Amino acid sequence: xxxxxxxxxxxxxxxxxxxxxxxxxxxxxxxxxxxxxxxxxxxxxxxxxxxxxxxxxxxxxxxxxxxxxxxxxxxxxxxxxxxxxxxxxxxxxxxxxxxxxxxxxxxxxxxxxxxxxxxxxxxxxxxxxxxxxxxxxxxxxxxxxxxxxxxxxxxxxxxxxxxxxxxxxxxxxxxxxxxxxxxxxxxxxxxxxxxxxxxxxxxxxxxxxxxxxxxxxxxxxxxxxxxxxxxxxxxxxxxxxxxxxxxxxxxxxxxxxxxxxxxxxxxxxxxxxxxxxxxxxxxxxxxxxxxxxxxxxxxxxxxxxxxxxxxxxxxxxxxxxxxxxxxxxxxxxxxxxxxxxxxxxxxxxxxxxxxxxxxxxxxxxxxxxxxxxxxxxxxxxxxxxxxxxxxxxxxxxxxxxxxxxxxxxxxxxxxxxxxxxxxxxxxxxxxxxxxxxxxxxxxxxxxxxxxxxxxxxxxxxxxxxxxxxxxxxxxxxxxxxxxxxxxxxxxxxxxxxxxxxxxxxxxxxxxxxxxxxxxxxxxxxxxxxxxxxxxxxxxxxxxxxxxxxxxxxxxxxxxxxxxxxxxxxxxxxxxxxxxxxxxxxxxxxxxxxxxxxxxxxxxxxxxxxxx
Length: 611
Description:
- This is Neurotransmitter-gated ion-channel ligand-binding domain-containing protein.
- Keywords: Cell membrane, Disulfide bond, Ion channel, Ion transport, Membrane, Secreted, Signal, Transmembrane, Transmembrane helix, Transport.
- It is found in: Cell membrane; Membrane; Secreted.
- One of its GO terms (molecular function) is hormone activity.
- Belongs to the ligand-gated ion channel (TC 1.A.9) family. Belongs to the meteorin family.
- The protein is about 25% helix and about 35% strand.
- Helix 2 (about 240-255) packs antiparallel against helix 3, helix 2 packs parallel to helix 4 and helix 3 packs antiparallel against helix 4 (about 300-330).
- It contains eight helices and 31 strands.
- The termini are far apart.
- With about 600 residues, it is of the alpha+beta class.
- Strands 2, 3, 5, 7, 8, 10 and 11 form a seven-stranded mixed beta sheet that branches. Strands 15-18-20-25-22-23 form a six-stranded mixed beta sheet, with no helix packed on it.
- The protein folds into four domains: about 20-235, Distorted Sandwich (Acetylcholine Binding Protein, Chain: A); about 240-325, Neurotransmitter-gated ion-channel transmembrane domain (Methane Monooxygenase Hydroxylase, Chain G, domain 1, Up-down Bundle); about 385-485, Sandwich (Jelly Rolls), CATH 2.60.120; about 505-605, CATH 2.40.50.120.
């Protein structure tokens, strides 16, 4: 233990003595003349003093966009030759190594250099206590090695933030001598030296670092030696995709869910839109918190404002929808199976409907009275194939949403007024795309007993029924209105002459089972009624097949006027259905053709019904 302690003491003593010895010898390499002025640069006669400069970037420790500065840890080396000193012959020193001159550095000229764009820094030459000055015995050159951790001003431009790249620089300059007297020469003019192990910061990736000569005139109008390093900091966008772009995009998509929410629950749609708007406003504030207050628009501002506008537009759409619904209706009364049963139970108990109520009578008709608080629009959902609506004291309008059951299939519907009061006529509109189309009205040139037909769109039709010329309160007024719906095929939807074509064999067999009446008859006469748009066929019944008729009875049936039915001799089998209490002909094959078809169907066992 004592031997080890003795050894270390001896080693430290020997090293200290050797350093003092070498330092003293390095000081003895040159003599300082009496007329030597350490405040003036050693400029050669008729020449320029060249100082070799090498800047080694050890690390970039920070980039602050808010403070608009960067922090760089650098090693700076200056090498020059002082021709005014008198160097002595070789003193048995290693000529290939630099040696420190010790306290003599206070008596010789040292370069006065500063960082041009540093923040809160002092000229490097003034801090002589922390500078090591070396001399080379062979080349008689002096060298200074300095390490600094300095903040530099950087012009941060954020127009493309967060997809931006920032360009910063550090400038090392001399302000005492002009470029005619002193110049900087870069040791590595075509490259830079960057020895940091990690070339990526938390937010930036460091691009190429390039040197450049920055000698330019300054306040005194003269050029001074200057060298600079240019940095490129490429912002990494992955953080912003995960924390900004993806969340705000999902928030906007979430606000669009309000379009799939029914318009009636207004509070749910408002809550969804306002919550999305507040969330985006919070993200906008957070995005600006760590940035300087600039007056130009940034890329992130454009993104967030577009997101806010889309959410705001959905709220505006909500307000227009709400206003439209308020003007369109004042009350919605859906009639499903449960409500129909309940209304029928009320009718069976002989309870009178209350003021403004809508009820369904046992006969399948809809009856009601107008509300006492004034005119409005009442919406009624109807899914029956046919029905009748009776409205006492009609005021305002009814909006009838017609559907053929719950299948959503396309259908053809027809409407007709049953009873028209002297002072209250029926006016019917069909709802089109953004407007109402008049379907039936008094004085339109057609008989009031004529039905008006229409095709469905996406399985439903909305009709507006209102009373024209509202009567005085003491005058009783009744609106009586009927409708019928029939399933529509693609062929009949596109061709208006479909109902005029001869029936197929399969259709005849089917109509024999499903028709309201089937008669074997002969045609007496045909009369075309342009007011009703129907052709009246007077028949003499030869054999009633269904229901019961008297043989020899005369019976009137109808067919569409545009079919242009002509009178013909012979016997026919008439298949028909009742449409608005009128017997309408479906098919009328000759008796011989029908008997042949029926025998063939019985033989092949394809007869669909036995009557």
